[in-house]
Specification:
CATH class: Alpha Beta
Number of strands: 7
Strand order of the largest sheet: 4-3-5-6-7
Number of helices: 11
Radius of gyration: 18 Å
CATH superfamily: Toll/interleukin-1 receptor homology (TIR) domain
Order of helices and strands: HHEEHEHEHHEHHEHHEH
Largest sheet: 5 strands, parallel
Helix content: 25-40%
Structural class: alpha/beta
């Protein structure tokens, strides 16, 4: 038993390179397809393998000519959708989708709670908000939902309680706020306690995040280094949209 654990640790790339995203986690020779988090198993509900179809095509993909790319179609992605997922993204997002479906019995919920650094409110956070809004996703966004004269923490509390999914926009500004234990840190603590959190890494890396919040870095998410912001928003929109 001990030798097996040592062998696993020796092959695992997380301590050195990190599981930067769902796609990066799947490349780890030790964790591979069964990866759902790095070292933290006590949060969220139990996980069952998703059902999806995959296809491979020659050329393209990582590494260029002569290789292949592997795409997957999650069960929640509508027929005819042009949004492309990797198998590891489907595995990472399936527990979130299950949470969305379970919370359909609760009325008057926003689709998404957007956690972001104050400094990003007019930049990356607003860009992501606009993309989601254009796809019909209802988003709790402090710039819109916190009115003048109201108590900020109380409004955030209500927003968290009335949202199906939390997304955390991880930027250099957010990392600075987390080090300072700001309001963003309080929002994150609530979201981490639930199986409804999707990190969106933008302009930084999972390695930098791990230095500040190992628990958040343990969650597989999406990265704008791998998908442009519009594509990230498209995947989130499909994730939270339920059939009529």
């Amino acid at each position: 038993m001990a030798s097996g654990i040592i062998s696993h640790m020796a092959r695992c790339t997380a301590p050195v390179r990190g599981h930067r995203s769902a796609a990066a986690a799947a490349d780890c020779p030790a964790c591979g397809s069964r990866y759902r988090g790095y070292g933290y198993s006590g949060y969220g509900s139990s996980y069952s393998s998703p059902s999806y179809s995959s296809s491979r095509s020659s050329g393209g993909g990582f590494g260029g000519g002569g290789g292949f790319s592997s795409n997957a179609r999650p069960r929640w992605s509508p027929a005819g959708s042009s949004v492309v997922y990797t198998p590891s993204e489907v595995r990472a997002l399936t527990p979130i989708r299950e949470t969305v479906e379970k919370r359909t019995i609760v009325s008057d919920l926003r689709d998404v709670f957007l956690c972001h650094a104050w400094d990003d409110r007019g930049g990356a956070a607003k860009e992501l908000y606009d993309h989601l809004q254009s796809r019909g996703v209802s988003v709790w966004f402090s710039e819109v939902d916190v009115r003048l004269g109201t108590q900020l923490l109380r409004e955030i509390d209500k927003g968290l309680a009335k949202s199906r999914v939390g997304i955390v926009l991880v930027t250099p500004a957010l990392l600075g706020r987390l080090r300072a234990e700001s309001i963003a840190d309080k929002e994150l603590s609530v979201l981490l306690a639930r199986d409804q959190l999707v990190p969106i890494v933008h302009g930084t890396t999972y390695e930098a995040l791990r230095d500040v919040s190992p628990m958040l870095a343990s969650r597989s998410g999406l990265s704008t280094a791998e998908n442009p912001m519009a594509q990230v928003a498209a995947k989130l929109a499909e994730l939270v949209t339920l059939p009529n």
